[in-house]
Amino acid sequence: MNTSSPKRWALVSWAVSLCSVLPVFALLLQSFAPDTALFEHLWATVLTDYIITTIALVLLVLLFSTLFALPSAWLIAMCEFRWRKQFQWLLMLPLAMPAYVVAFIYTDLFDFSGPVQRFMRAVFQANTPVGDYWFFEIRNVYGAALMLALVLYPYLYLIARTAFLEQGAHLFQVSRTLGKSPWQSFRLISLPLCRPAIVVGLIFIGAEALGDFATVHYFAVNTLTTAVYDSWLGHGSLSAAAKISILMLIGVMGLLGIERWQRGRQRFYQKTSGQLSRFQLNTRQSVAAVVWCGILLMAGFLVPAIILVDYAIQYFSVAWQSQLWLVVVQSIWLALIAAVITTFFAIIFIYTARLSTKPSSAIPVRMSTMSYVLPSTVLAIAVLIPMTLFEVQINNWVEHLGYQAPGLFLSGTVFALIIAFVVRFQAVANGTIESSFLNISPSLDMAAKSLGKTDLQVLFSIHIPLISKGIFTAILLVFIECMKELPAALLLRPFNFDTLATYVYQFVSDEQLEQAAVAAILIVLAGLYPVIRLTKTGKINNE
Amino acid sequence: MTNRLISMIFLLLITSVSNSDTQEVNIYSYRQPFLIDPITEKFTEITGIKVNIIYAKSGIAEKLQREGKYSPADLVLTSDFNRLLEITEKGLTQAVNSEQLNQNIPAQYRDDKSHWYALTTRARVIYASKDRIDNTKQLTYESLASDEFKGKICVRSGKHPYNISLVAAMIAHHGEAETKEWLLKVKDNLARKPQGNDRGQVKAIKEGVCDISLGNSYYFGKMLMDEAQKPWADAVNIIFPNQQDRGAHINISGVAMTQYAPNRDNALALMNFLSSEKAQSLYASLNMEYPVNSKVAPSKMVQSWGEFKADDLPLTTVVNYQFDAYKLLDEVKFDL
Question: Are the beta carbons of B67 and A407 separated by less than 8 Å?
Fold first, then answer.
């Protein structure tokens, strides 16, 4: 029985994973349709610019996020300073802010016609308009990258902080006693040890940046997603759009492959190291640490939050609608259901990969991760293709049997939304669960098995308790993402059904965020509890 | 907990799956709900027919296509002509025979094969700074390319459907080569990279970033009605271009019935209602658009902008040039 068990796990894994990759296959099929003329046109005109901008955007977002996240994670994990405990969770708050809301607020704030520049003109009495004084241009690739990094860095911060905590201080201290400077020790010991974790964080962030359309569009930055939307909506060629999306996907998969290959077969199984003694920062260092964390918190959360509250108060009569309560309840349930399913699948995938030494056993995980890179609206269409195909077949069949056709029982209901969320955010859950599993030494599995436990029993009695925090983290992360998710929700929701995000969007799309300020605040509030819990679950016993 | 979870899922489903007992009509809409809710609410009040709406910014045509004959949608509402024609040309609509529609909507605003119907029209106007631009009578789309406006023009993305339609009309009138020249010069005259929406350009004029912008006519009314935006609108004049020659470019919002509309009668009732005097005057007073029904006058505010001559080039001709418009915009890298 034990010999066939991994096969059964593999079977389930493959089945679920194949289902979740169907949309990507559908796009792939779509992309085979010929449209050379359009491609040649794009290539001859704007595509090179788009590619350069895209690469610049993704690199800048990664750079800014690393710059924001790693120092803060290091400070919080390894050093002791005033308000450290508070900053530990405060620094996670930007994750609760939808990027399109932050983008709106900041472009409005720093535009030539925004309050900041108006104030400057009033102070310096610059009457002659443009060009009289220097002010940074917010609507360019730097502005867009900065904005995306501000809301995305918490991913890396969360993962890196946990990784720093888990590696403990002893290795670092050994390095220090051997005469290396703090910076050398950080570079030679701490950083390489959490490289897998950092890479996971950067992958999330990179994929988000690559697939983003709403935010970059706001900043008048044209990336490959612009090309995707133009070919689809402008030139009416879904196949060209599919082609570009698939190329983006291949590019990312290639980079991932290189990273994995380069990291090789290094594995670190960490035992939680006893008492972690933090470095006590001196006064000057403490002030610097507080200022650094404070600036991040201000820029990523406080400023947008305050502006939202201000809008909400000014426009309360239009911004508050009693039906919002229903929308809140709907959004939360939907996000929660999707988060639980996604995490459940992730456990199956990762455990299957763990059970077997064959490289092929990891394919289901990798496969189900792919759709994360696709622009969300394209993914929504991609989800619709196999789903409606299936429904139409069932309907035809039922009608053929002489009964009344059931109609669109998937795509016409909230199932479509749940499925789209699960497909889109599987990568988030996979990454979190995978890194939790990695910390459990395989010797535990072997010990349990030698005592005659089945694979399922091992999973429930050994792994699930050990990764319970990881499970919780995965659920919370996916939950937050689902609450903010927009393009798929917009297209796939049933009649008269709003999530908070779609509710906000109908106003944001008309650049009237003020009127949806209350709903936007509700999205943030719904995300706050999970975000704060996230930091708590990341704690280990020495806190 | 499990039970509550399950019952909640069912509750979610019940709220979403349509109930076949009640009289209803289902709409896929490219127009924002807050623009049409007041009108559909009136319809429900009068007829008792419930109106269900999904609003999406893109992908409705694909969705309809994929759903095929099981699609629950009865009507599609669009905010521009391109997308109205797109669903018609993809064969996703059906012809509607209604004496009332034909009476309410003039022939140039409906399909000869009765697939699509315009509900409102709007002009693509020029907004010009009150302080800095005189001689507004001479303003034409062509004049935006002249040297005197160097660094003085603001515009939203050239790829927005409203601008695509204008560029397509330029191609229809002047041919591709001349339009490309024009686009290059306009791009050269821009005060900043294309960005934001039509209102944002007026705000930029108020702040002195530029002196001239393109925008849809109804935004002027919308801004005047909004306390925070009124100062922007007060800083500009609304100019209907090309009044000495062919007239201002106009676009439409419209409606079409889907090929497999399950609630055909109700859908027809709603279409008739949307073209009726009651609904048309709501469109006029709430959205500041021009009603297509000639028995309904534009709102007082819209009338105060004066009458204007509209380009009578049929939109069906304009739409033939939309792909060329896209190509030209890419070639001159208008948005970059």
Answer: no
Contact B231, B98 (CB under 8 A): no
Contacts of A490 in chain B (CB under 8 A): 55-57
Do residues A480 and A530 touch, judged by C-beta distance below 8 A? yes
> Is A467 inside any structural domain?
no
Domains of chain B: 22-121+250-304 (3.40.190.10), 123-249+309-331 (3.40.190.10)
Residue type, A274: G
Q: Say how many CB pairs under 8 Å bridge A and B.
A: 151
Asked if residue B210 lies in contact with residue B154, where contact means CB atoms within 8 angstroms, the answer is yes
pLDDT band for position A539 (cuts 50, 70, 90): very low
Contacts A495 to B, Cβ<8 Å? 16, 18, 26, 52-54, 72
Closest Cβ–Cβ partner in A493, A496, A511 for B197: A511
Q: What is the CATH number of the domain that holds A103?
A: 1.10.3720.10
**Which chain A residue's Cα is nearest to B7?**
A333
* pLDDT tens-place string over residues B270-303: 999 999 999 999 999 999 999 999 999 999 999 9
Interchain contact, A511 vs B196, CB within 8 Å = yes
Indicate whether B2 pLDDT > 70.
no
A431 in any annotated domain: no
Q: Do B70 and A413 touch (CB under 8 A)?
A: no
Higher pLDDT, B1 or B277: B277
What are B135-147's pLDDT values in tens digits?
Answer: 888 899 999 999 9
Of all residues in chain B, the one with the smallest CA distance to A494 is B16
Confidence (pLDDT) at B6: 60
Residue A107 lies in a domain: yes
From B207's Cα to the closest Cα of chain A, the distance in A is: 6
Whether the Cβ atoms of residue A2 and residue A455 lie closer than 8 Å to each other: yes
Which tens digit of pLDDT belongs to each residue from B98-107? Answer: 999 999 999 9
User: For residues A92 and A531, is the Cβ–Cβ distance under 8 A?
Assistant: yes
pLDDT tens digits for range A212-223: 888 888 888 999
CA distance A307 to A247: 39
**What is the distance in angstroms between the Cα of B103 and the nearest Cα belonging to chain A?**
31
Do residue A234 and residue B333 have CB atoms under 8 angstroms apart? no
Q: What is the mean pLDDT of the segment spanning A530-536? A: 79
Q: Do B207 and A112 touch (CB under 8 A)?
A: yes
As for how many domains chain A has, the answer is 1
Q: Which value does ipTM take for this structure?
A: 0.84
The answer as to whether A333 is a domain residue is no
Query: CB B54 to CB A494 under 8 A?
Result: yes
Q: What is the DSSP string of A442-508?
A: HHHHHHHHHTT--HHHHIIIIIHHHTHHHHHHHHHHHHHHHHH--HHHHHH--TT---HHHHHHHHH
Among the partner-chain residues A118, A222, A232, the one whose CB lies closest to the CB of B335 is A222
pLDDT tens sequence across A449-482: 888 888 888 888 888 888 888 899 899 999 999 9
Residue-level pLDDT at A100: 85
- Best CA proximity match to B9, nearest among A49, A64, A329, A196: A329
